[in-house]
């Protein structure tokens, strides 16, 4: 599991890769929150394009970031979900909490 | 439906979170004998990951216990997976299985573990005794690729 | 040298030849926690494959029994692997361990199983009781990559 | 595990791929011997370039093919061994029984 953080015009993108389970979600949470708490971005995008495996711990991870971002009036986007991740995301009804983007492949495209 | 399994394995390991990936990898390596698609294998890994994580996060919360997995393969392409702990148990299983229900607030749990198991496997059965432990049994039938081609 | 393992798992499965690949895959998935190189992981898989095959070909020849593997990980990067059967046992262990010695002529065995285990692992210990079964214990220390970089 | 058989000028090449253990060696043996017994080639080349894993069952496999080929005065070559396979091959002293070729990558090169 690895997290790569990008910052552009007050927006933060976390590019996740590897497997997301309860074990690795803790590490991701740590890295994202540390950076986000400093920067207080107006939008956080979680990019799942490099994620090969995810269980419901990934949902907890997204929900937790939504709560955090709400604290300073920011919002969360999740992007590039594969069909399996999409299935779990829709079980969770995450579309109520954050924006789901389909095709942000190019990082230039994170306006 | 009583069938004799054609193959069988049992694995047990400590309830530390580093073993979540081991648990699902071990089951996947065994299930591979049924020649599942990548999709089917991914479903199985996800369901196992949920059940194993529950043992770590809930059953043995703040302690280290042993998690037991038994897998059986059947001639018709079915796999049965039983994941067992000797942890705290569940008072009200029906309530626990409701989507979004969780007793954990310190860890970021979504309350979706059982919902994911149910949605990714063909069957799910949970039995539990408070103070004794919990047992989760799941089945999935792997489609025969040859049969698929023929029909 | 008495150390407490930091992690531990046990897996048991039937002695059918389809499980040879499962046995080594399960150990490899567990050993992965020590962050071994591809080379080190391949050594471990080869040694485990030899020991598991011996249980299938020799210990439970013409029958189906259970093969037991226990793996322990230690803080210093060591893995210990014990592979046990309740099969026919070995009359003369020292003789059995000599390279090119084999009691099998129907199957094409090279008599190199123990030689490969010895050459691919740091240590190998074999104990056996005729009629009771055999136990093979192997160790390997995985080099710390960080330490490697620093020196 | 899969075996691909090539025949050219009375020489047979078996291109092996996947993992060779006691389980898969049986299948390989079956396929190679069936074809070789019909053709009785003067040389059999076992090409290991696609083999990701091999234990000592692979040595038994080579030894057995050497015996078979000797029956009609033919010989065995083994080619494209990775370092791990080479280690087992040298433990076995297979160079006494057959020819070891290093760099037959191109199948045109099987003269
Ligand atoms: N193995 C277990 N031992 C004890 N309690 C469990 C176990 N599995 C699940 N539970 C209980 O059931 C609840 C719901 O589980 P689940 O649907 O997996 O969601 P989550 O793990 O996100 O809380 C848990 O919060 C916990 O109270
Ligand atoms: N688990 C076992 N149970 C009984 N006999 C064994 C076992 N492992 C090895 N042996 C004996 O030791 C001999 C040498 O084993 P090995 O070096 O692995 O070569 P091979 O398996 O090719 O015969 C075997 O032929 C067999 O007689």
From TrEMBL, chains A, D:
Domain of life: Bacteria
Pfam families the record matches: STAS
Domain STAS positions: 1-111
Xref: SUPFAM superfamilies: SpoIIaa-like
Protein family membership: Belongs to the anti-sigma-factor antagonist family.
Protein name: Anti-sigma factor antagonist
């Amino acid at each position: 599991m690895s997290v790569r953080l990008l910052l552009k015009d007050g927006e933060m993108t976390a590019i996740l890769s590897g497997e997301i389970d309860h074990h690795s979600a803790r590490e991701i949470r740590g890295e994202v929150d540390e950076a986000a708490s400093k920067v207080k971005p107006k939008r956080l995008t979680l990019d799942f394009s490099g994620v090969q495996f995810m269980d419901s711990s990934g949902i907890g991870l997204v929900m937790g970031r939504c709560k955090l971002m709400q604290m300073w009036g920011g919002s969360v986007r999740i992007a590039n979900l594969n069909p399996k991740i999409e299935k779990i995301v829709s079980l969770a009804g995450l579309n109520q909490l954050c924006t789901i983007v389909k095709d942000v492949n190019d990082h230039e495209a994170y306006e | 439906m009583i069938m004799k399994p054609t193959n069988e394995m049992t694995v047990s390991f400590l309830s530390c979170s580093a073993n979540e990936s081991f648990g699902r990898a071990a089951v996947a390596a065994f299930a591979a004998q049924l020649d599942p698609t990548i999709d089917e294998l991914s479903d199985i890994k996800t369901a196992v990951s949920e059940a194993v994580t529950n043992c770590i996060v809930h059953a043995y919360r703040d302690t280290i216990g042993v998690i037991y997995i038994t897998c059986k393969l059947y001639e018709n392409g079915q796999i049965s997976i039983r994941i067992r702990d000797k942890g705290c148990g569940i008072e009200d299983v029906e309530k626990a299985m409701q989507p979004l229900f969780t007793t954990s607030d310190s860890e970021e749990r979504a309350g979706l573990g059982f919902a994911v198991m149910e949605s990714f496997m063909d069957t799910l059965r949970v039995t539990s005794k408070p103070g004794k432990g919990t047992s989760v049994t799941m089945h999935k039938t792997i489609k025969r690729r040859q049969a698929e081609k023929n029909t």
